[in-house]
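WARN no homologs supplied; continuing
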Amino acid sequence: MRTPPHCAPDTGASAYVGDDWLLYVDAAGDYTCSEMAAPCVLLGEPGQSVRVQDAHGHTLACAPAVLHAAGSASTSSQRDIGTAFLYWDPLSPAGRALTRLCATQRVQPWDETALPAWEPDWFDALRYGSADRDAVIAWVARMRSALLARAPATDADWRLRAVAALLRQDLSCRLSVGQLADRAHWSPEHLRKAFREAAGMSLSRYQMWSRLHRLIDAEGTDLRHAGAVFNAEASLLEAGFYDASHGCRAVRRYFGLTAGATLQPGIRRASCRG
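OK structure emitted
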């Protein structure tokens, strides 16, 4: 487990990254608007329900956990409630299960009884970065099982997984759709259709998810302080962003961080890969 940098004790924001998931926990409750980069479970602070609304102020869901399809957007009016974003790789079994659950209703509530060990002590351990690595992995595994119990899903076709692997290696978009299609032995049109059906998103959107996953997993990444994160242009370029401005906009768009939130101290990070 990587040792995160020192942060002020009242920051209460941490990120954990696994092979096919990303967990971002924020106790500040300043989540205001976000477009989901991948299939996501948005969890409210234990004992609270998170209310999400559309751009017109209409309530979409109010529950301890809210399921989001990739690309869905929502706003929370409850800024004093901590939140956790649990993203899944769209081609993983859990990601595909979440996509199936949100096929007809892109944002929907999830009953608290389905949440494994979502308790105040556990939330505090996650947000302050004191959670044991193996405990985080085990908790994510239980979340995965809970999703698969509701919507069983198998691994995506090996050809799509091969294309996804190429996309993760080619985050700067050097490969053409034709070159990707050659790896799958499909036509470009068939690849686009098959990928969207399996992942619930386009090839380019999947590449954005891969960039964010790599950015948060990178040593020294700090999502909550613009001066600390986005001046580290090497980290952003390594993650595949065109430049620092592009990376800054992506973080605001997909994590809902406001200008005020970016002035706070940095988050803790832990790698839970393998």
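Residues 14 and 268 are 5 Å apart (CA to CA).
OK
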